Amino acid sequence: MTNDPSRTTREWQSDSRWKDIVRPYLAQDVIRLQGSIRIEHTLARLGAERLWNLLHSEPYVPALGALTGNQAVQQVKAGLQAIYVSGWQAAADANQAGQMYPDLNLYPSDSVPKLAGRLNQALVRADQIEHEQGKKQIHWFAPLVADGDTGFGGTLNSFELMKAMIEAGVACVHFEDQSSSAKKCGHLGGKVLVPTKEAVQRLVAARLAADVMGVPTLIMARTDAESAGLVTSDADAADHEFMTGERNEEGLFVIRKGLESAVARALAYAPYADLVWCETSTPDLEDARQFAEGVLARYPSKLLAYNCSPSFNWRRHLDESGVAKFQNELGAMGYKFQFVTLAGFHALNLSMFDLARGYKKHGMAAYSRLQEKEFGRERDFGYEAVKHQRFAGTGYFDAVQQTIVGGMASTLALRGSTEAEQFTPDLTNDGLSNDRPTATRGVHGKVNGKANGKANGKANGNGNGSGHAKSKSKPANALSDDGAPDSEALEPSARPTAGRVSRPA
Question: What is the pTM assigned to this prediction?
Answer without folding.
Answer: 0.84
